[in-house]
Design a protein that fits this description.
- By secondary structure, the protein is mainly alpha-helical.
- It folds into 2 domains: 30 residues; 91 residues, no CATH class.
- Helices cover 81% and strands 0% of the residues.
- Helix 3 packs antiparallel against helix 4.
- It is globular.
Length: 122
């Protein structure tokens, strides 16, 4: 009996940890600024200086995004969409400003591919 209780406690503990790591289980897994920067670093061959700047841009975006979510207590996603779109555009513009012309071309292609995938899902 004790072993059964111990196994149950272990399973509950593991599931609680995995639930917390997934951001509460509801919604999508959101990438943190470091992961988003790492993805761009690999795909665009960013320099160390660019990595620092892009991380700061993504960190600022994440804080602004959290503020939007906090302000949207009613859960009206449609009302939040224009502000989110403007935030994404501003973030992309800031990133484009620090990229070389070759990197900017690749980044624009990535954004276009991402938009195409988004349209396919909707």
């Amino acid at each position: 009996m004790k072993k059964l209780l111990l196994v149950c406690a272990f399973v509950i503990g593991v599931s609680a940890v995995s639930f917390a790591q997934n951001g509460g289980g509801g919604g999508r897994n959101r990438m943190n600024p470091e992961k988003m920067t790492a993805r761009l670093k690999d795909s665009l061959s960013l320099t160390a200086d660019q990595v620092t700047k892009v991380t700061a841009i993504f960190t600022s975006q994440a804080k602004s995004q959290d503020s939007l979510r906090t302000a949207n207590t009613g859960g009206d996603r449609a009302a939040m969409r224009p502000a989110q779109t403007a935030l994404r555009k501003a973030t992309s513009d800031k990133i484009l400003a620090i990229l070389t012309p070759e990197q900017a071309t690749l980044y624009k292609k990535q954004l276009a591919n991402q938009a195409a995938r988004q349209r396919q899902r909707n």
